[in-house]
Amino acid sequence: MVHDTAGAVFDGFHEECGVVGVYGHPEAANLAYLALYSLQHRGQESAGITSSNGQTLLTHKGMGLVADIFDEKLIRRLKGPSAIGHNRYSTAGSTMLKNTQPLLAKYTLGSVAIAHNGNLVNAEELRVRLEAGGSIFQSTVDTEVILHLIAASQAGQPVDRIIDALSQVRGAYSLVFLSEDHMIAARDPYGFRPLVLGRIKHAGKTGYVVTSETCALDLIGAQYEREVQAGEIILFDAHGMTCYNPFPRAPSARCIFEHVYFARPDSTMFGQNVYHARKSFGRQLAREAPVEADVVIPVPDSGVPAALGYAEEARLPFEMGLIRNHYVGRTFIEPQSSIRHFGVKVKLNAQADILCGKRVIVVDDSIVRGTTCRKIVKMIRATGAREVHLRISAPPTIAPCFYGVDTPTRRELIASSHSVEEISRYVTADSLAYLSEEGMYAGLQVNGNGFCDACFTGRYPLALGSRPKGSQLSLFGEQG
Amino acid sequence: MVHDTAGAVFDGFHEECGVVGVYGHPEAANLAYLALYSLQHRGQESAGITSSNGQTLLTHKGMGLVADIFDEKLIRRLKGPSAIGHNRYSTAGSTMLKNTQPLLAKYTLGSVAIAHNGNLVNAEELRVRLEAGGSIFQSTVDTEVILHLIAASQAGQPVDRIIDALSQVRGAYSLVFLSEDHMIAARDPYGFRPLVLGRIKHAGKTGYVVTSETCALDLIGAQYEREVQAGEIILFDAHGMTCYNPFPRAPSARCIFEHVYFARPDSTMFGQNVYHARKSFGRQLAREAPVEADVVIPVPDSGVPAALGYAEEARLPFEMGLIRNHYVGRTFIEPQSSIRHFGVKVKLNAQADILCGKRVIVVDDSIVRGTTCRKIVKMIRATGAREVHLRISAPPTIAPCFYGVDTPTRRELIASSHSVEEISRYVTADSLAYLSEEGMYAGLQVNGNGFCDACFTGRYPLALGSRPKGSQLSLFGEQG
Amino acid sequence: MVHDTAGAVFDGFHEECGVVGVYGHPEAANLAYLALYSLQHRGQESAGITSSNGQTLLTHKGMGLVADIFDEKLIRRLKGPSAIGHNRYSTAGSTMLKNTQPLLAKYTLGSVAIAHNGNLVNAEELRVRLEAGGSIFQSTVDTEVILHLIAASQAGQPVDRIIDALSQVRGAYSLVFLSEDHMIAARDPYGFRPLVLGRIKHAGKTGYVVTSETCALDLIGAQYEREVQAGEIILFDAHGMTCYNPFPRAPSARCIFEHVYFARPDSTMFGQNVYHARKSFGRQLAREAPVEADVVIPVPDSGVPAALGYAEEARLPFEMGLIRNHYVGRTFIEPQSSIRHFGVKVKLNAQADILCGKRVIVVDDSIVRGTTCRKIVKMIRATGAREVHLRISAPPTIAPCFYGVDTPTRRELIASSHSVEEISRYVTADSLAYLSEEGMYAGLQVNGNGFCDACFTGRYPLALGSRPKGSQLSLFGEQG
Amino acid sequence: MVHDTAGAVFDGFHEECGVVGVYGHPEAANLAYLALYSLQHRGQESAGITSSNGQTLLTHKGMGLVADIFDEKLIRRLKGPSAIGHNRYSTAGSTMLKNTQPLLAKYTLGSVAIAHNGNLVNAEELRVRLEAGGSIFQSTVDTEVILHLIAASQAGQPVDRIIDALSQVRGAYSLVFLSEDHMIAARDPYGFRPLVLGRIKHAGKTGYVVTSETCALDLIGAQYEREVQAGEIILFDAHGMTCYNPFPRAPSARCIFEHVYFARPDSTMFGQNVYHARKSFGRQLAREAPVEADVVIPVPDSGVPAALGYAEEARLPFEMGLIRNHYVGRTFIEPQSSIRHFGVKVKLNAQADILCGKRVIVVDDSIVRGTTCRKIVKMIRATGAREVHLRISAPPTIAPCFYGVDTPTRRELIASSHSVEEISRYVTADSLAYLSEEGMYAGLQVNGNGFCDACFTGRYPLALGSRPKGSQLSLFGEQG
To answer: I need a surface site. Which of A94, A271, C478, D443 has the fewest CB within 10 A?
Structure first.
């Protein structure tokens, strides 16, 4: 069954994804499946895998979690020594099967499938141009323009058509393409989104894996080799691996938010271990914003490393004062006679035995709208805690991301329009402190050059060609 | 969940369909649903409806029967005063959701949905040309080329683009198109497949219905008006109904097989009642091929009218000697210790009480491979019938259809390579006779001009541009 | 998922069923499945099969049609040389999975499964007595009391316990029981419901089949042997087949409605072919109620044999003037702007080409509420028919059945409170005639002794012990 | 659809459950649902809720997680001011819908539903006795005998029948019963399994909640009042709450394993906070089994509190050296070319950046078969860790539980037949130490009297009446 709305425009501006490509392994689809499994945190709404058996591309896609979409029989059907996979999260309106990836196309040179992490900023204008030339779009994801640019290219070889296509798009893209007899990986010249390269041995031969995070390499037993470089295009075919750097060099703009929140803590991101980075943020935060207290607790699970770092630096006890319910589903049916702090209590329970009578430092990695945070603070105080000090292991989030992280619009970001003092009062904390921008980079032991921190600063490395509806981008300073 | 194969080529050559379009009725989708319901015999594998609420096209499609695909909630969601619908049967390989119709496209002038009954004979060459120009195909049905031709056309108005597109395709097509604010019906210049026009009143206003058979008009209470003429294009919009005849006139080639087998007996097809036509075939057959016998029985249900005609003309008793099981599903699980005549016995049971000791004339409308027929004859004889005479109310089927009826390949058609005598022996009948070609037209009280009878004669009114794989068309004489 | 209501009482008073038991065939479950398939007309709401592999009973049950409930894997799991099966229709309230049969119980002697066609008239009083003794009921079907009576019996052998249990129940029952190592068939002393015995050979050995109708024997290739006699109990075990007649003889009360409507036309029921019986009813009706007319048409499919008989006797042409849609599902979504004769038109279409200007005799087998009939008459007249004469091939249905046929309550039966003249006027026919009671038995060439015709006469062969709620039974004369 | 096996015997010996009862709240079923939600860790295979609207019991049950089984519509249908709920885990063979609870029965006094945490040790002998008296069992769970004992009791009031029934059963039970107009809670005289009582206010009135753990009270905003005492029976009806203590006093035998592993860390169990207890176990373990090391890491999530306690006491850094994949489904499809440490790596990833070159102490709460543990040790060592010291925050598990915790059979428990030294070698650790029995009780600051620690000691507080098949219980010393 398919329910569809033909009138939709591009709606893919706020989405998060994980990608993987495997080349030269007899069980490529199975490895891709496992990689998606370990990248599930990057997108839980849909997933898909396309394999090539040398003659034909075979695809299975579905809505939901990787473990629910695939079963052994389906994986076994995705035969062939190469495969690409994708999982995706996107905001409400666009959760349709037709928008799940890999997207596929048959064009004059054969078949091509594509899996994309990132967002293109000139997709709308390219689409208008392509439609005027007679192209018909099937999905509402920006990624599809790349397929049409490939189909419309006059270049001779698939890799040349892809280079031709990518030279026309602007934005964030970490891409894997699959055709009958080759696989191509590509990362945009800014290097917004991560993409790593690994090798996997089988029966004495070397296969290749390209994926969003190193945790996927770990699971399938592949050796981490290096990042796919910003602007690099890599062709995997019968001749092995061939690297291209066809585009002019652009300033590096790796996403700092991967370290702050998005990536899995056991991944190595842009050369650094994420868990270490987060602990460093916590330690730095303890230096910048100390406070007299009895105990440091994290908002689990994402706040754990920073809270450990804070506690270590502050020489305070670390406790799991908030216990997470591990079986939380997507919906909870609340009685009409409403329950106090319900929204947060289904996920987290504050332990009175640990917190009652204490001065508590709560560490989390971000405040978005402030509503959840406020419930947590109140729930902690309801246990009898004497003081509740909130520490955020990143700077205030003030601006939406247009390069592949699902942040809300500016209007919804409490820090875009309120001072730290105001937010502290709103969430009813005794004190609130954020990590400074400098502190964040100090935690990473780098300077800020080379990172995109637009969500914290509003400084966008790359202008939007056509504005998505409702965007307030024009309020911010932009940088080309 | 979607399971897909990107490497497939056009596979839509053998398919049957029913179409409907409703314009100017507040419950257009509901009427389209009912029309599809009454056209279910034209295709049981998938169905879909697209409605327009004036701004947006809304679609629901699925695999299976109309009654299972739609429910009240889904129909209510398909809002708007116009809707088109489609149901479809096609051979095994191509039963994929992506091939269900209506097909949709957004192109530079807006949205367009299409529902198609028939087959194009130059789809493959158009596809190659379009792909070379950068078009990307999403399905493997020939119908999609029409959408690309529309998108690629430089004409100004949608109806002009459709005329432009149709001027490039050759083959059988009865089409309905739906856009945000208008509906267009079209029938190819040969008039291969049926398409009728009706009117339906609502609250004092007149709406229009275009559909494959008049039985659909009957069910929804629409008045039959006339056939959509061969080569005619009708635009329904806010100004009412506008007719175009843009193409050069072609020789009429209406499908005789609709009368023989395909259409519902209560439909008026090409101006004649189908039940009457079939009775006439039976009567004519009794004149051409009489035989001493005690009873005439039909192979239910399709053989009933011809058997009644035969019995009337032969002044022999008519009996339901074969009883049909009305609850036959798609699959039956047969024990490994196999059952005699199982394949046919799950559907039909021969009544010994009626047939034992009798000389039996069995009337059916066609013999395809001969295997089922052979089982029926043997099952009848096993009741104790003294003689079994088989009478077929149409000429031998010797050639496949390339214009929209699902006949097997020539190799599988027993009559393409065996004489009537040989077939009679194979099916173990005491005698076998077919209706003659002349007798068939005599039954219709027309001469054969104006009909396509390629399945019975091998004379194709329209040559194939590029041959579908495995087709043995070149063995036949063709006529432009 | 199970949705359940513990507070329900017996609700099984209006239900119809088919049963089968197979003993001594290596693919017993597969044969039972096919038998249920051919008995699908006796119950379309649920079905189930229990097999015995010698040690354990294995069951699969479900809601819906046999073909949808079972697949090859499920049938293969139901291993063992014996199996029983059941399909069931019952009125709305009681369509719950827990009420599907076979019902199973483990008791002190082992396991027993039961499949039941019929209704017990003293189930409620037995239930009250059993509950007072500590029994816990799991379903709301009357059949379950038999299991509790078996479990509570002090007799030594299973067959003796079953005889003990059946000696306490009163009503209509055709039963098959399955235990680990034997199968038992039983038919009540009145013989209300049919039950036939057949033999099936496999690898030189003889297996046994017990089932509701002979059409099931035909499909699986079993030889019809005889009816299970009224009051007979047959044990099938390693020693072969042993017959018991433990109960006092009761007057024969075979259900005449099986011949009129319920059984499949190709079955031999109580020794006579059903199709023949129906044709005879039609012939007799033509003698009793002739009328000047041009054509005789049936209400398909059940009215076909009687209409053929009528036409033959009256020497009038027989035509299929009403065409049945073979793809009718359970629900149809009608527009709010309602369609004329919609309720009947989705199932039947009246052919103007055949009926216009004619004097039409319509033959059907019964009028229940009169509403459908009225729609059919009006739809026929709307084609332009000059006269519409309705002929019913059975006497008026005036009283509900308490022995296993789903007839509505007396209040809903139009003939229970209206004269033939009044009904004729209500259904807007030019004339209406029913077959007389005597004519019906004349058609069968028997006198009425030995049949239950309570639905036509209100004379119940067996009193109800406790009245079902809402029953108006007390208005009728009863006979013990 | 139901798939069933009638020949099964009681198979409920190894199962875990959570129960809840709510009395006197207009949204009782919704609160029960939320309570089950927070008790999901006690059983993930099935769940069910029965409510009473005063006249009728309404039930919905299903297989799977609470969040998947129920939706808003289903909860709203479970009307009424009282409800009981149950979730359940049991070993493979017995995962059938018919075994899900609440179990329901209609008997002579009306309806009763039951939800049970625990296991009865004399269920088999009671069942044999009841079946000999004519009872028919529907499920294979021991709980059903209680229903039959109630139905067979001659006592006058429901609560007296329940007391009568419970006086005949021996074993572990924390029970809630629901009838049309009252709810009853009961805990066995030994107090094996937990059961707590809370109050919940609504519109000025007090309602009651009885449930397995206090975390359920926290979520629904109920006030914890006290434990239901061992041997206590509480009746909730229109008159309020009435307590009974009808049974002779038995030695207290509360389950120590609830503290070690089973309960949620934020629950208060037998009067003590579970998280605190586990930290104390870790601290005590550090005192008993210190070792030179660089870092302490938990096996997440259950090992976290003990690891924190160990690290604190040992003054060593605590790190999350193993990262848990939060999206682990039930099945993973491993390639045939197997992956190193796959079985554990899909759930946990060892962080080389944290562990490489370090002497690592890994803290977990138990070793069952040793196979997972061995994989974890090897995976840690593969990161480059110099030493891996395993510390278990409980004594060796040597004996199965017969009172409601799903431990494997003795044969499968590595510690039942191997020394600590042998286990250490098997799991390839550099050293292994368990917490001592005394240390465990010291951690709880109690002496061991009053707890059941049979799983660690083999000393069973209550003999089994009839032995479950395959049990090796006779090898152990037992205590009455």
So the answer is: A271
- CB contact at 8 A, D83 and D21: yes
List the CATH code of the domain at A262-475.
3.40.50.2020
Q: Where are the domains of chain C?
A: 15-250, 275-475
Among residues B17, B401, B452, B455, which one is catalytic? B17
Q: Is the ipTM of this complex over 0.85?
A: yes
The ranges of chain A with pLDDT < 70 are: 1-15, 91-96, 329-331, 464-480
Cα C305 from chain centroid (whole Å): 19
Those residues whose C-beta lies under 8 Å from the C-beta of residue C73, and which sit 6 or more positions away, are: none
Whose tokens are 């066995």? That residue is D188
Task: List, as one string, the DSSP characters of B77-89.
Answer: HS-SSEEEEEEEE
pLDDT band at D353 (very low <50, low <70, confident <90, very high): very high
Q: Which of C163, C274, C268, C167 is nearest to C226 (CA)?
A: C268
Q: Which residues of A touch B61 (CB under 8 A)?
A: 1-2, 4
Q: Side-chain half-sphere of C74: how many Cα atoms within 13 Å? A: 21
Contact B327 C44 (CB under 8 A): yes
Q: From residue B407, give the alpha-carbon distance in Å to each of A419, B96, B127, B253, B441.
A: 75, 20, 24, 18, 21
Render pLDDT for C5-44 as a digit per residue (tens, 0 to 9). Answer: 333 334 334 468 999 999 999 999 999 999 999 999 998 8
- CA dist D110 to A255, A380, B227, C131, Å? 66, 46, 68, 10
* Residues constituting chain D: 480
| Residue from A84, A126, A136 whose CB has the most chain B CBs within 10 Å, to mutate | A136
Assess contact for B96 and B7: CB atoms under 8 A: no
Give the model's pLDDT for residue C15: 66
Q: Is A54 left (phi over 0), alpha (psi -120 to 50) or beta?
A: left
CB B366 within 8 A of CB B414: no
Rounded distance, CA B290 to CA C191, Å? 48
The answer to whether A153 and A147 are in contact (CB under 8 A) is: no
Of C74, C107, C111, the CB nearest to D7: C111
CATH 3.40.1360.10 fits B259-475, yes or no: no
Instruction: Encode pLDDT of B399-432 as tens digits.
Output: 989 898 877 778 889 999 999 999 999 999 999 9
Identify each DSSP E strand in D351-392 by its residue range.
359-364, 387-392
Taking an 8 Å cut-off on Cβ atoms, the answer to whether B134 and A151 are in contact is yes
Cα four-point dihedral sign A450, A454, A459, A465: positive
User: B105 and A7: CB-CB below 8 Å?
Assistant: no
CA angle A17, A18, A20 (to 5 degrees): 145
Closest-CA residue to D403 (of D127, D126, D142, D186)? D142
Please give the pLDDT value at position D465: 58
Q: What would the 3-class secondary structure string for B324-390 be?
A: ECCCCCCCCCCCCCCCCCHHHHCCEEECHHHHCCCEEEEEECCCCCCHHHHHHHHHHHHCCCCEEEE
The pTM of the full predicted model, rounded to 2 decimals, is: 0.83
| Nearest residue in chain C measured CA to CA from B65 | C327
Alpha carbons C107 and C144: distance in angstroms, whole number = 13
b/e per residue C443-456 (b: at least 16 CB within 10 A):
bbeeebeebbbbbb
CATH class of D273-475: alpha beta
- pLDDT at residue B467, rounded to an integer: 40
Q: How many residues does chain B have?
A: 480
CATH class of residue range B15-250: alpha beta
Residues of D in contact with C135 (CB under 8 A): 107, 134-136, 151
How is domain C275-475 classified at the CATH fold level? Rossmann fold (3.40.50)
